[in-house]
């Protein structure tokens, strides 16, 4: 019975993602923000009434959640696990590296959001630097004593929060085909960069704008040229 249930759930989720309009909506929600049905209809280039039926199907499979704010309803990805699964699927469908790099805008390859953490070239470089500089170690992404000191200097907590989400982990980057930093630490680092004015999210896309001062400070801290 359990196997049958899992097979049915897998088929339902796959069918929900398989539709191009719903896939467009899920990709739009990968920036980690919540959007209204009207905004998502514009992004997916469909009528608002059509968008509502697609959103209902995504909610049926627990791929997205609806948040009520006053008279408005906003939709977001159900969880960070959904975002990680979608990022992995993006890497799977774009296995032709040459074609992928040609079709992916350079600004998105450089820096973008992956739900609530950084992705793209800059994120992969930071991920590697964290291990090279001995802030993180091992396959479990353990934070070293030196890493805790340096994170606190950045204003980032070196302790896991109450969430069951892993504190630090790798997340396969679909455009770079290498790991960028995910988990609670990935989210906290992006938040710290935004608080310091080093990075700014685009209003209508997943792009991250990195300021000139941000590039200098990050290069100084992590020894990576951006």
From TrEMBL:
SMART domains: HTH_ARSR (SM00418). GO terms for molecular function: cadmium ion sensor activity; DNA binding; DNA-binding transcription factor activity; lead ion binding. InterPro entries: ArsR-like_HTH, HTH_ArsR_DNA-bd_dom, HTH_Metal-responsive_Reg, WH-like_DNA-bd_sf, WH_DNA-bd_sf. PROSITE patterns: HTH_ARSR_2. One of its GO terms (biological process) is response to lead ion. SUPFAM superfamilies: Winged helix' DNA-binding domain (SSF46785). Residues 1-97 form the HTH arsR-type domain. PANTHER family: TRANSCRIPTIONAL REGULATOR-RELATED (PTHR39168), TRANSCRIPTIONAL REGULATORY PROTEIN (PTHR39168:SF1). This is ArsR family transcriptional regulator. It comes from Cedecea neteri.
